[in-house]
Amino acid sequence: PVFKYGSCEEDISDGDMTFEQLRAEKEPDFLELEDSKRVSWTVQYGRVTKPISSPAKQKIAQVKEEIELSKEFLEGLKKAKDKRPRCFVKPTVAGKSKGIAAYKAILLSPEDAAQSPKPICLFPARDGQMYEMRKNKLGVFVTPTNHIHELSEVRAGFQPALPRIPHELFKRILAFFRYYTEQEHPLEVMVQIYWDSLKKRFLVVVPYQHVSGVEVRVPEEQPGQLDEERFYYYADVHSHNIMPAFFSEQDNRDELATRLYIVVGRLQRPSPEIRARISNGGKFLEIPLEDVVEVSQAEFPEYWTASVAPWFTANRKGNAL
Question: Label partner for 170 (CA 20 to 30 A): which of 50, 83, 202, 281?
Fold first, then answer.
C-alpha cells in the first residue's frame, strides 16, 4: 500500500497499522491532518475505491486484502491494461464550516459595504487592515477589526517544491565566500542557485559582479544567460565577509523578486552566521535555514558517554549536592 496525499507518495511499510495511526504518523508533515474528526480515508486499488468507516480500528493490510479478494477488484483486473495496480491510501480533510450570518457580509471595499443592505459588513483596506462597518438609525460606524472567525486561519511560510540544497554544494559556496573574506581587504560576493529541471539538480552560477567590502552590484545584462524554461532561478546567496549576517536596507530594495535569499556573515569564524528569508513580491519572511538547505549533524560514538558521570546528585528535597 502507498500513502498518497496531494503530490506526496510513500510506501507504507507497516500494513498492520490502522488508518488513525497513519494519520498520527503523518501529522507532523501535514498539519491539516491534526484533527482526526475532519480526516476521512479511502483506499483506491485498481478500479475499486473503498471508504473507511472505522479508521481507528481497521488495519491497512486487512482492507487491502479484502479488496484483492472482492469480485469487483478481480473483474476490474481482467479488463485493465495494468495488471499490477498500486494500492493508494488517501486521506481527505473536510473544510471547517465557518459560514456567515445572514446579517453580515464580507466585501472588497467600503463603497460596496455602504451599498450593501447588510447591517454588518467586513472589508479590507489599503493599509492591510480589515474593517467592520455597522449601519443603524444613528449612522455608519467603521472601526478596525481582527480575529474574524468567518475567515480562514493562514500561517505565513514557505513550502519548497524542490529538494533542499545539498550540504556539500552549500559548503563550496561558503569556501568561495571565505576566499574573498581572507583577502587583504575583505569583499562581499554573491552566487545564484538555479534548479536544472532536466537533470533534477541544483546549479551554482557566479554572475559578473562589481564588489566592495560592503556592497555587491550585479548588472542586469549577463553573458550567457540560462534558458528560463529549463533553469529555475531559486536563490540568491551573498556574503557579509567579517560582518554579521543581516538583511540590509539595500537588500530590502534589491530582493524584490519572489524567491529565496540567504546571507552569510562572520566568515572569519569556523561556524559563520547564516540567515535565510523569502521574498513574496517584496514582502519578507525569515525562515529556518534547515528548511531549504541540508544541515549536516556531526555524530560521536555512543560508548564515549560511558566515561562521563555528573559530579552532582540531588538530595531528597531536590537541592543539588
Answer: 281
Contact 89, 43 (CB under 8 A): yes
Cell matching residue 213: 567590502
88-126, pLDDT tens digit by residue?
999 998 765 556 778 999 999 999 999 999 999 999 999
Going from N- to C-terminal start, the domains of the chain cover 2-93, 104-145, 168-291
Fold exhibited by the domain 168-291: Cytidine Deaminase; domain 2 (3.40.140)
Digit-coded pLDDT (tens) for 217-268: 998 888 878 899 999 999 999 999 999 999 999 999 999 999 999 999 999 9
Give 144's strand partners. Answer: 131
Residue 45 CA to residue 3 CA, distance in Å, equals 12
> CA-to-CA distance for 284 and 261, rounded, in angstroms?
10
pTM of the model: 0.62
Q: What is the CATH number of domain 2-93?
A: 3.10.20
Q: Which three cell numbers stand for residue 144?
A: 478596525
Question: What is the rounded distance in angstroms from the CA atom of residue 204 to the CA atom of residue 192?
Answer: 6
Phi then psi for 81, rounded to 5 degrees?
-75, -40
Q: Hey, what amino acid is at 239?
A: S
